[in-house]
Design brief:
Structural class: alpha+beta
Largest sheet: 6 strands, mixed
Oligomer: single chain
Distance between the termini: 80 Å
Order of helices and strands: EEEEEEEEH
Strand order of the largest sheet: 1-7-6-3-4-8
Radius of gyration: 25 Å
Strand content: 25-35%
Helix content: 10-25%
C-alpha cells in the first residue's frame, strides 16, 4: 500500500495514541501492540513502542468507547530528527485469534510545535467500561513450591490408600 501524503505531526519525544477497540465482534479481550517503522516507505514495523497490553471490554459484541495512551515513547535506542518520516502501527489481536492492523503515517516535529494539539482530557481519554491488564502474570516461586508440596502429600496419601485397598482385596 502506498504511503499517505497526509502525514500527522508527532513529537520527537513520543506522543499520544488513541483508538476505538470495540468496533468488531470478538474483542471483549484483546492484546494491543504499537510498533514503529522508520522512513517514508518503512520496510517493516519491527520497532516496538508498546508491547503487550491487554484491553478488557464490556462485551464480546461490538461496543462503543475509546482508549488513549497519553505518552507512547519512542522505541529503545531509536533517535529521530525533526522532519523524519515514519509510520506508527497499532495491532489489536482478539481472543479468537484474528488481528486488526491500523497505521498512521507521521512526520516528527519538535516538542511544543503549535501544529501538535496539546494532550488533555478532551482529546485523550479512556471509556469507563474499558480496562486494561498486563498480558502475562505469574505466581511467586514460594506459592508454586508450597502447592507442589501439598500435591505431593495428597498423591502420597492416595497411593498408600490404593495399595492398602489392593492388598486387602488380594488377601480375600
Amino acid at each position: 500500500m502506498p504511503t499517505s501524503t497526509n502525514r500527522t505531526k508527532w513529537p520527537v519525544s513520543g506522543g499520544a495514541v488513541a483508538f476505538q477497540p470495540g468496533w468488531f465482534q470478538g474483542h471483549s479481550t484483546a492484546f494491543i501492540y504499537i510498533n514503529l517503522g522508520l522512513g517514508t516507505v518503512a520496510p517493516n514495523m519491527s520497532l516496538p513502542m508498546l508491547n503487550g497490553v491487554q484491553l478488557i471490554g464490556p462485551s464480546n459484541n461490538p461496543y462503543p468507547g475509546s482508549w488513549c495512551f497519553p505518552q507512547v515513547p519512542l522505541p529503545a535506542n531509536v533517535t529521530v530528527n525533526v522532519g523524519d518520516n515514519a509510520t506508527i502501527q497499532l495491532i489489536e489481536t482478539a481472543k479468537h485469534g484474528a488481528a486488526l492492523f491500523n497505521c498512521a503515517d507521521i512526520t516528527f516535529a519538535a516538542d511544543g510545535d503549535p501544529d501538535i494539539a496539546e494532550v488533555n482530557s478532551s482529546n485523550c481519554f479512556n471509556s469507563s467500561d474499558i480496562t486494561y491488564d498486563l498480558v502475562f502474570s505469574t505466581t511467586s516461586l514460594q506459592e508454586t513450591t508450597n502447592a507442589a508440596v501439598r500435591i505431593g502429600r495428597d498423591l502420597d496419601w492416595l497411593t498408600t490408600s490404593f495399595l492398602a485397598l489392593t492388598m486387602g482385596w488380594l488377601l480375600l
